[in-house]
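Dear Dr. H.,

I hope your travels went smoothly. While you were away I took the liberty of generating a structure for the chain from your last submission, since the lab meeting agenda had it listed for discussion. I wanted you to have the full record in hand beforehand rather than looking at slides cold. The sequence, exactly as received, is reproduced here:
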Amino acid sequence: MILLGLGANLPSAAYGPPPASLESALALLRDKGVKVLARSSWYRSAPVPASDQPWFVNGVAVIETALDPQALLTTLHGIEAKFGRTRRVKNEARVLDLDLLAYNAVVSGPDGEGPVLPHPRLQDREFVLRPLAEIAPDWRHPVSGLTATALLAALPGESMVYPYE
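The corresponding predicted structure, in token form, is as follows:
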């Protein structure tokens, strides 16, 4: 199972407010030969780490593609750039954030070729796990072996992720 995280907390000049931008990003993925098999609902989430920037709209998609992990990541970055995303400061507000969360059972570290898989903070982020558990509750983290539901249940603290209305 190939998993993508989608998020935005700023409007895009060309694509509109975050929910519309996220839908447009999914459409652009389809145009690049990436088949979207499932998509979660959209969720509102507080910025991580906490800051005064606007709240995010987040979701997760299950996709199918013939692209290898590096080519897929390059495609995701190209779509982000088309939306006006520039990477200047870590954790800054953004018009679009597309993360490769997992690529089947591939496990690769920062010293290997291509992206770090699974995403190194996937298991710590409610804004990823809540939508993931919605569409793939039995998905298993390739390192820990825990399901999306179990990872979500293990998170500490009060929820800062809510259904988008």
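Two observations you may find useful: Strands lie at 2-8, 35-39, 43-45, 56-64, 97-103, 161-163. The mean pLDDT is 93.

With kind regards,
E. W.
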